[in-house]
Design a protein that fits this description.
- By secondary structure, this protein is of the alpha/beta class.
- The protein has a single domain (33-240), classed as 3-Layer(aba) Sandwich (Rossmann fold), CATH 3.40.50.150.
- Helices cover 38% and strands 23% of the residues.
- It has six helices and nine strands, in the order ααββαβαβαββαβββ.
- It has helices at residues 2-49, 61-69, 101-111, 128-134, 147-159, 196-201, and strands at 90-93, 96-98, 118-122, 139-144, 165-169, 182-187, 202-212, 219-226, 232-240.
- The protein has a seven-stranded mixed β-sheet. The chain has a two-stranded antiparallel ribbon with strand order 1-2.
- A hairpin with a 5-residue loop joins β8 and β9.
- α1 (2-49) crosses α3.
Length: 249
Amino acid sequence: MNQFISRQLFILWMAFLFAVIASPKIHAEDFYAAKRTQMIKTIEADVRIGYGNLAQKDLDENVINALNTVPRHEFVPKKLQQSAYDNRPLPIGYGQTISQPYIVAVMTNLLHVGKNDKVLEIGTGSGYQIAVLAELVDKAYSIEIIEPLGKEAEARLQRLGYDNIVLKIGDGYYGWKEHAPFDAIIVTAAASHIPPPLIKQLKPGGRMLIPVGSRFMVQELLLVEKSEEGKISTQQLLPVAFVPLTGKH
């Protein structure tokens, strides 16, 4: 009888310890889940306003699901995690930022990517944008020119289980011809012009989003489309402010 009581007390004690240990994690997950829900509501309200030349008033349901799946707080410094779901950019070190959630949502939505697609990102940063895209496509490639930032992003994405993302350190201006052509290309740094190598690596029928303009001025987010015949068209969508695209070009 004493052994039975001891065993029961031991089980109760272990259950108590598990609850104490797990409780902060559960509370944190609930906290961030609520923050994500509020972030998406804010983004959807802004999308309905229709800034610039953005005609679409609703986000694709798959994009919403991706935003609701990716733990944005994992992609910012620990001291900023409670602000991760605010609708604003945040610093991530090395003079770089994680883009405003609204911009991430709009750019992702405009790419029109699907589960069989292959996408290229120029400017990995913290890895958040490519993680969102990885929820939507078959294969996602990303290039970061700042080596320590790229290595941090790679370790983070591996830890979070993103096995359909391939990263490299390099100058994104020249794209990644070994894996071209791409169904979509997204550039998350401002260029003075549209890089010709990226146009060449865009698949016929594909789309590219790129901010174009000077470093200290408002830039324009451009939608670049390549027709099935290879004809290029561009459309100005929205005034934006991105860090500059750097490299030897």
